[in-house]
């Protein structure tokens, strides 16, 4: 048993080593991977929520689902610009209908993909300012963006579950039909 455990540990270490060597920019590559996962989940959540429930808010003090999607659009456009040093893209935050919001959300992810396409690990220590007051580095901005993306999807998933719907990340690999 010890030999098998040792062999598995060595094989795992070798796989991790080869994976890290496969990219000259492991941090920015992983950041793009996180963006793609969030895009899949957020667009899936936006599609899953019925149009009639875009005005749903769990409590009187929480945002509506519509506002959450509008916020995600603005955050994508802003954070991807800050990370790369580009001018932030203006967003269609006044869009209210489900179809228009999904289109604007998709466009915000397309903007991020374009901005991050040539992102490298060079200069991660360079200073940037977030929200006009938070002095950090490019790496720090990437961490903020990753956290923001996770927070947005966690909120969207909670809203879906409160409406009796299964979030996209919980649907993958399931053979059961989606709830409508």
Write the layout of secondary structure elements.
Elements: H1 2-21, H2 26-48, H3 65-84, H4 98-116, E1 127-130, E2 134-137, H5 138-162, H6 168-171
Helix pairs in contact: 2-4, 2-5, 3-4, 3-5
Give your account of this protein's structure:
By secondary structure, the protein is mainly α. The chain has a single domain, classed as Four Helix Bundle (Hemerythrin (Met), subunit A) (Up-down Bundle). It is 62% helix and 4% strand. It contains six helices and two strands. A two-stranded antiparallel ribbon has the order 1-2. Strand 1 and strand 2 form a beta hairpin. The radius of gyration is 19 Å and the shape is globular. The C terminus is likely disordered.
- What portion of the residues fall into strands of 2 or more residues? under 5%
Q: How many distinct folded domains? A: 1
Mean pLDDT rating: 87
As a percent range, the share of helical residues equals: 55-70%
**Rounded radius of gyration (Å):** 19 Å
Q: Widest sheet: strand order? A: 1-2
Distance between the termini: 48 Å
The profile of the biggest β sheet is: 2 strands, antiparallel
CATH class: Mainly Alpha
Report the order of strands and helices.
Answer: HHHHEEHH
At the fold tier of CATH, the topology name is: Four Helix Bundle (Hemerythrin (Met), subunit A)
CATH architecture heading: Up-down Bundle
Counted by DSSP, the helix tally is 6
Uncertain parts: 4-10, 14-20, 175-180
Shape descriptor: globular
